[in-house]
Design goal:
The chain is an alpha+beta fold. 12% of the residues lie in helices and 28% in strands. The chain has a domain of 105 residues: Umud Fragment, subunit A (Ribbon), CATH 2.10.109.10. It contains three helices and ten strands; from the N terminus they run H-H-E-E-E-H-E-E-E-E-E-E-E. The strands form two sheets. An eight-stranded antiparallel sheet has the order 1-4-5-10-6-7-8-9, with no helix packed on it. A hairpin with a 2-residue loop joins strand 6 and strand 7.
Amino acid sequence: MKLQDTTEFASSTGHGHGGRRKNSGRKTQYQEKTVVMRVPESKVSEIKAWLKPKPADDRSQKIELHPIQIQTRLDIPYPLESVAAGFPSPAQDYTEDVIDLNQYLVHNPSSTFVLRVNSLSMKNAGIDIDDQILIDRSLKPEHGDIVLALINNEFTVKRLMKEKQKNGELKIWLKAENPEYPDIYLRSEEQLTIWGVVTCILKKLR
């Protein structure tokens, strides 16, 4: 009896002891036919990283911006001399100056807002989910600034990139500081507005 006949016999008698069963085998993550190809060993990791699904763009139409309200002054004493990241000098048991966090962190109270971050697209810039960032609307955005950008009524926090092309034109795009997230290159129909410049990351260590 041929193998084909054996498979048909097992199927007809209801015994699944041989042949290919429906929905068996390795499941593919791609909804199309796949092919086998040979690649240099040194490129395997790079190709796997490229094939890894990337998060969707993190633009959002709804964000919660909170205006700054400076109500109190808090003076924190600090030494005039700088201290290495270790134990301070035993002889330095006094301070001669103070710092007010309101003045240090907020230069333009009327144009400064607080935003809580809900994306990991700027992780490599030190911005994590639930971090709070200060955004100053009065500052002129420069190349390399982290900004709150508005693209067709959708907000996103990215690094502003300005590149002068060979033809003299200025190319503007938004860089994600996390390789798992896509950079944003504006299409011809999209309008970009820089809502404000990020000046500070408020992050608690404990």
